[in-house]
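Quick one: structure for this chain?
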Amino acid sequence: MKNSNKILLKVMVLFLVVFSCQDDDITFGEITAPSNIQVEVDIVGADADNPNGDGSGVVNFTASADNAISYQFVFNGSVSSAPAGMRTYSFSNLGLNTYSLTVVAFGTGGASSSKIIEVEVLSTYEPPADLITMLTSDSSRTWRIKSEQGGHFGLGAIGGDINGFFSAPPEDKAGVGMYDDRYIFNIDGTFTHITDNTNDDPDVDISGTVFGRENLIDELNGSGSGSPNGADIENYPYDDYAAQWFLTGPGGVETLNLTGIGFLGYYIGGDHTYKIDVRSANEMTVRSTDGNGEFDWGFILIAD
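Got it. Here's what it folds into:
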């Protein structure tokens, strides 16, 4: 009788194990890669007489694909999210140039497909000399966020009041990895971001931290995750880095462009372009649209 009970107990345990395993066998659904990627290219100002545009260098791209749920554009090493498949670029190399971009379409389960496209664009914009002087002192100039002034960091609707949703009071973001950053613009077009200027004396220490938007800041591929605070990521570990800068004037708006992952103040992804709203000899207010296409973010910078 004891043996019978032991056998029955073993059978019941085996049944529970099998049943539990079957319960954990979760179905994720079909994984489908997008296909038939199409990209509509709208070169601003293009017509029969000017097939390569009006000289502004601005091009609007609209991507579509079968079974796609989101998109990315990759240009010059910079990845830009475009959930609806729409992206605008300002190409600045003077003259008529051909540019190559990659469009990535994402389907279910993370499956993706890509397509390389080329566009020939005319750019005739030459930035004013006083803007270059302001930015570089005709050699090299260091800038910082003007943390002592209210509204030095703002959030608003795209194209609207840059402080419409949020306007930072003086020193509001102390200790999160923003105010100790320094941005160096050199006359040769190079840009250096010092992510912590407090640890470079007497010897240079390239380590530091930065401040940015959740998920978007992951584009930096840093060595750590930082500290979440709502939708912000504070003190995200990131070393000093170098990039390039150049100026464009889409629609007559002076615009500062940074290559790669170059950014100012708060990492928001996007196309890493900053429209200059206001400038003087030693100060400028800039805005940029985030990589989610949700908001414009504004920053006041002052020469250090």
